Structure formats: structure tokens, C-alpha cells
Amino acid sequence: MKKLLFASTALVASAGIASAQDLGVALTGMAEMGIYKPAGAFGFDANGDVDFGDSDTQFFTDIDVTFTMTGEADNGLSFGASIDIDEAGNGQPFESPNTQGGETIFVSFGGATLTMGDTDGAMDAALPEMGLAGGSLNDDETAHIGFNDGDGYSLYELLDTLGTINGGFDSGLSLDGNGDGQIARFDYAYSSFVFSLSMEQAEDGADDYLAGNNIGVTAGFDANPIYGVGVAYAGEFSGVSIDAGIAYQTQEDVADTYGLAVAAGFASGLSVGATYAQSDVADEWEDNIALQVPGFAIDNTITHWGLGVGYSMNNIAVGLNYGEYSNDDFEASGYGLAATYDLGGGLSLRGGYSNNTLELDGAGEDDYDTFSLGLRMNF
Questions:
Q1: Which Gene Ontology molecular-function terms are recorded (predicted)?
Q2: The whole model's pTM is what?
Q3: CA–CA separation, 114 vs 227, rounded Å?
Q4: Which structural domain range is residue 197 located in?
Q5: Distances from the Cα of 61 to the Cαs of 6, 346, 373, in angstroms?
Q6: Which of 154, 151, 147 is nearest to 121 (CA)?
Q7: Partner residues linked to 227 by β-bridges
Q8: Smallest Cα–Cα separation from 212: which of 183, 248, 246, 247?
Q9: Is the pLDDT of residue 290 over 60?
Q10: Lowest mean pLDDT, pick from 66-80, 155-169, 176-190
């Protein structure tokens, strides 16, 4: 999930308590305009090989508004909520108690924080991502098919794209979103560490079908909750800031995923990082895939590795990253570049580019590019 959308996420990460000046209701927003070239439609050519159709450069306009509310009880317990209107307008009404519609709600006391709603699972919360600097209008640098954004499940997303890919994969191995999107996470901050536990329920807590399965449902499969545990560290050694994490997330009859990542920032403005994840696919899920997509199989283990480098100085920020998913049946890789020039007052010029390559066993490979260029306004 895009952490920048949730004002409470930073609060959860630090397990801080709202100060007096923070109490009340805050309204923030952003708007973007420019041009972009998205991913083309995905399919197969006359020979049965992977084929990405071309897409046209077009106008890009986007706007989002977030409401953030905070308060503090007499005993010092702090509480708050935020609602991202962009997410709430995506057919997910936030006023429905059994539907996650972009709302995030938390309570915090001392080093302990409980967050529910549109928040990250323990793995996504603990592991730093490799988009280390800069940003683009269409998230080219973090939406390429080799990027691990800690959200979703690449195996599931890969199969779901046997229709189209417009905007890229929701790439990750954490299993976040493979349920109904309602996540409960408990964080405890101690010294430089944050310990996290999370659970995402299946669709409305159901236990008789596989939640999130848009490619069909096989009789006899249960909808199991997703559990996660993670540890994050943030500290400084000899002027070098270190962000690191290790995590595990699991869904019975789907997969077990392990991950670790580290990023270092130097006083010169340079930052570097690396990430690795491994997901062991359950036999039940492999069988389900074989039934839903005849002739296409995913076996055993999926691995991901990625590298990132960034540079920020004065008004300029530039980031480059590369990542790759692979197993015996497919390889999805890509790199992304983002550059930002801060014009002051919340206005910035942004540009991004990505290159994406997908290879399927027995179906060849193909690649596509995306880019975006324009202005972002933060309010």
C-alpha cells in the first residue's frame, strides 16, 4: 500500500502520541497533471508467445484528498483516523463497517499501537522499499513488474493479468489484499525497533471460498486469514542512517513468504538498498492454478530480489531501482527511474520511466516501456 497516503502510518511507525497542536481535523491533498504512456494490453500472438500491445501517450490528471482526525483521552491514550477519498471512491464505501473503503483507524498508548482498516500488513510495514528517492506522476519507478512494493501477491496478479495489464502489476509477495483488504496490525516500539503482528481476514470473515480470487473459485478450497509478523529497525551509525526489516507472512493453502530488506542513507545525499523475498507456494494453490488456467503451472518457490539507489540534494531527487521475480515457470523483471525537482510551495516537476520484461515458460518473452512527465501539487 502506498504509505504516503496515510498520515497515521508515520505515527504508527514511531508509535508517537499526538501532541496538542496535532489534535483536531486536518485536510491534505494533492493534484497532478501532465502526460504519460501506460502499459499496453497483455496477450499472446499468433504463435502463442507473450505479447504486450502498444499504448498511446495521453494526458494525465489526478487528484486526491485525505482527512486526518486525531485526539487524546484523559489517560494519555491517543487515537485517530484518516480517510483517503481516492480509495473511498473506488466502489468501496467507507461508511460500511464490513468494507474497507480507504479508512485507517488507530489507538496508541506508550509504545503500543493498534491500527485497523486500510493499513499495511506486518511484512509491508517492516520492510523498506527500493524506491529510495524521487517520484513520478504514474509511479513508473514503483509500478514496474520487477518492483516489490510489499502489497498483493505477484503469483496471483500474474495470473489475473491473463486479460490486460494497464498500469502494471500490484507487485509483492506479502499476500496483503488476498483477503478483503481489512487489516488489523499491532505495533510495539522499543528503542530503535518496532515489532509488528498483523491479520487480514477473508471476505467478511467467510471460510468457504478463496477471497480475492478473480480468476475463478475451485470447490473445496477454504478462505483462510493472512497472518504476519515483522521487526523493523531504524538507527544511525557514524552518520549513516539505517532502515532494515525482517518479516514473515502466511496464508494457509496459498503460500508462506519470508522477506528482509535494508536501506542506508549517507550525509552526501546518496542512499542505497537491497531486498530479498521468498514465497513457498502451497500444493493446494498450485492445483487451483492448474485448473483455472489449463496448460499453465506455477511450481514450488517464487523468489524476488531488488536493488535501489537514490540521490537527494537541495531541490533535486533522483532514484533508480531494479527488481526480478522468478521461479521455474516465469521471470518478471524491470527497472524504474524517477526524478523530482522541487519548485517550492508544494509544487514539483516530476518525471519517470520504466522498462518491463516478462518471460513465461513455453510462451517466450516480451517487454514494454512506460513514462510520465508533469507537475505535482501538494496542499
A1: porin activity
A2: 0.84
A3: 15
A4: 3-378
A5: 21, 17, 11
A6: 151
A7: 199, 250
A8: 183
A9: no
A10: 155-169
Give residues with Cβ within 8 angstroms of 178, minimum separation 6. Answer: 152, 153, 156, 200, 211, 212, 226, 251, 254
Q: What mean pLDDT comes out for the span 252-278?
A: 95
DSSP SS3 for 375: strand
Closest CA to 78 of 164, 18, 6: 18
Q: Please tell me whether residue 232 adopts helix, strand or coil conformation.
A: strand
CATH number for the domain that contains residue 364? 2.40.160.10
Three cell numbers written together for 167: 498500469
DSSP H helices, the chain, are 7-14, 85-88, 122-126, 140-143, 154-160, 283-292
pLDDT of residue 56: 92
Number of Cβ within a 10 Å radius of residue 262: 17
Long-range contacts of 209-212 (CB under 8 A, 24+ apart): 210/253, 210/254, 210/288, 211/178, 211/179, 211/180, 212/156, 212/177, 212/178, 212/179, 212/180
Structure confidence at residue 154 as a pLDDT band (50, 70, 90): low
What's the structural domain count of the chain?
1
